[in-house]
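Assess this one:

_____
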Amino acid sequence: MPTVPHEVPHLSVEQLFASPARVRASISPDGTRIAYLAPWRNRLNVWVQDVDSQEEARCVTADDNRSVHVYHWTDDPRWLLYEQDGDGDEKWHVLRVDLDDPEADAVDLTPFPGATAMGFEMSVSRPGKALLRLNHRNPVEFDLCEVDVATGELTVLAQNPGELDGLMYTPKGELYAQIWTPDGRIELVEWDIGTGDRRLVATFDGADYPLGINPFQLTPDGTGIWVGSNRDSDLTRLVRLDLATGEETEVDSHPDLDLDTRSTVFPALPSPLVVDRGTGELLGVRYLGKRQVIRALDPHFAEVLQNLERLSDGDVAGLSSDESGRHWIVSFSHDRDPGVTYTYDHSTGESRLLFRPFPDLDPESLAPMTPVTITSRDGLALPSYLTLPVGAEPAGLPMVLLVHGGPWHRDYWKFDPTAQLLANRGYAVLQVNFRGSTGFGKAFLKAGIGELAGKMHDDLIDAVDWAVDEAGVDGDRVAIFGGSYGGYAALVGVTFTPDVFAAAIDFCGVSNLVTFLRTVPEFAKSQLVNNWYRYAGNPDVPEQEADLLARSPISRVDQIRTPLMVVQGANDIRVVKAESDQIVDALRARGVEVEYMVKDNEGHGFVNPENNIDMYRMADSFLARHLNPWPDAT
């Protein structure tokens, strides 16, 4: 049996899940100011400090209800914008802060109750203007709008007739849009708003892009689009699509890796494209395998990148520069030195440590996250990550199988506070990129079609078997823990394979695929044909509805004998609270005990630190009772 590694300090839940001291720094376009997120009244807010002044930073936003996570510099250093929703309802608004008037209140630039702003971007070709898509007129139709940042005036550039998505506006005033057709194609069309005529530019097979095409970004001159394309290839590369001809020309590719498209699911993560702050021209491209690779396409940026990468042995994450390309701020993704952030002056070559988001975390007390490859029972290579407790012998360890969401997402090398908490408590942690995960080629992605609760789950079971055989894991003390799709996977684990897991934690997971698909927000339903309908089934087709129900944990609730913990945000619009309620109610009706936590001020995933702390304290206690990580501890 493993022994307690007394030399490793006990990490509290608060150390890992409280708000960071500082995070997500960026420099203003004129290079005079630095902004970052830091706590104010226990919520992350935007703080700004002068680069050369010795004056202390000041908090420029004042949200004491919910943390700010996304903010934007504008081309005028007076104005800073940030995004905020209400208690996790994902009804995003864009607000403006006047940096020259500290006493002024933030101004909501999208002041429409119940509306959602999406696709925000500053326009290089139209200074002082911001483009966004807004459903203020009709909840299911996003119009293309332009906001004058200084005055707050909002202009509807194009009213969506109903079936258009991703409206784009070129510097010459031309309009382009995507159409997701009922048969699964994604069409790019030029739209003449005056006549209503549409010219087909290009067509994509939606099966290759379950969450849409990323990147899909206008070139600065407006004559082309940078596209993440896997047309006629397994891997996704970067191409330029000519808007006049529809022809694709390769811009860059990697022989072994997909473009890094994690920002499709989490927009706060870096874009696959690194672009010039002033001109919008392409500087570099991100790819992601076991670790990230950035390919520089510009000689100046190649020099900058080489010097930045010397600052840390992590992966370059957040990256910003002033318009001159001289002053840079870079943060790094790292398994044990999370978010370490530096400033760099390319004219002098000088750099300095700006901050560490978690200064009280000693990297030596954190566990390395090691890439491993697991072979499935049918021969598919599953890229995975294994985190082992620091100082413990890898023999007889309990393990938590930590399952990512999506399922069109992926695990990657990073600081993962959940994995670190579990490793600190004595568990091995295994994170598996099962078939259907993104980022490993088109064939690997499509191997998940029709395999929910099938081969996608077999991959997880095969990973458990691998861990028992190869990583010193005690097969009788394995738990499964996941959020969103990972929560569904946890429920599948205890219903379809009830003898495998000793405990399970479901965080905002789907219990009934039929009811889940019928409660997807209306504005997202047109895109279901290329993801959930194609990969799982359409509940409006009777035979597919039956199959969806058969693959749903609720249909096998009588099989549950594994201790179960369920966590849910009451305002979740993606996996509504009824998904958790019905599995909990069914178990309690049978007299089966289930631990259930609901937070009334959260949505799909928790943001407020006190809620995350509550959840992980509960999870810590729950797993300790059922997995007994230190059985011989005194």
User: Anything to note?
Assistant: The chain has a mean pLDDT of 95. Residues 67 and 555 are 38 Å apart (CA to CA). The longest helix spans residues 609-627. The two ends are 13 Å apart (CA to CA).
